[in-house]
Amino acid sequence: MLTFRDATVADAPALYEAERATAGITGHLVSEPDELSLASFVDRINELSDGRGKYLVAEKSGILVGHASLCPMLLRNTAHVVKLDICVHPGHTSQGHGRAILSALVEWARGRPGPLKIELLVRSVNEHAIALYRSAGFAEEGRLRKRVRLADGSFCDDLCMALFVDHRS
Questions:
Q1: 8 Å CB contact between 118 and 163
Q2: Which pLDDT does position 27 carry in this prediction?
Q3: Which of 77, 132, 140, 148 has the fewest Cβ atoms within 10 Å of its own Cβ atom?
Q4: Is residue 143 assigned to a domain?
Q5: 114: how many CB neighbours lie within 10 A of its CB?
Q6: What pLDDT does residue 91 have?
Q7: How many CB atoms within 10 Å of residue 125?
Q8: Does residue 149 sit within a domain?
Q9: How many CB atoms lie within 10 A of CB 146?
Q10: Is residue 159 part of a domain?
Q11: pLDDT tens digits for the chain (169 residues)?
């Protein structure tokens, strides 16, 4: 059974290493492993600790199996939009963890008055993730053509997807 909790600064090294490993094996991240920094994970955890956004980790039997964040946009006129980033850790994919993490974050957003829209970017070649997002109610809002150069020199598009948050009382 998965459990969820807020990310802490103590989690940053494990989250950093998981994303580096994921970037190295899936090819679905824009970042290359050497472009990620531990400091950026610490910074995001600290930035989201004020409650305007959320940084969630998923654990199974005490082992971190994934993490995700909802980061609000900075300007007042777009602060109702949160950007989703999600990572299921290597060795823990295709077990429903991504769906569970996504559901937990959507429920968190529904319970807050601020977030009205969740946005994300996903590579057009990541069919598994696209299917997950569509099944969760996300819709494609646009396509950024040839946005990402792949390791073999070819390009792929990024899809812009969004979900409007249904606030339940």
A1: yes
A2: 57
A3: 77
A4: no
A5: 15
A6: 83
A7: 14
A8: no
A9: 10
A10: no
A11: 899 999 999 999 999 988 888 876 755 555 666 677 899 999 999 999 988 899 999 999 999 999 999 999 989 999 999 999 999 998 898 889 999 999 999 999 999 988 999 999 999 988 999 999 999 999 999 999 999 888 788 899 999 999 999 876 4
For the chain, the farthest-separated pair of C-alpha atoms sits apart, in whole angstroms, at 49
Rounded Cα distance between 118 and 48, Å, is 15
| Closest alpha carbon to 84 in 103, 60, 105 | 105
- Measured at the alpha carbon of residue 85, what is the angle toward residues 79 and 91, in degrees to the nearest 5? 165
Return the bridge partners of 86, or none.
68
Q: Does residue 113 fall inside a structural domain?
A: yes
Name the residue with tokens 């989250």: 15
Range of the domain at 86: 2-120
In the sheet with 54-60, reading across from the earlier edge strand, the strands are 2-6, 54-60, 63-72, 81-88, 117-123, 155-164, 139-149
In total, how many domains does the chain have? 1
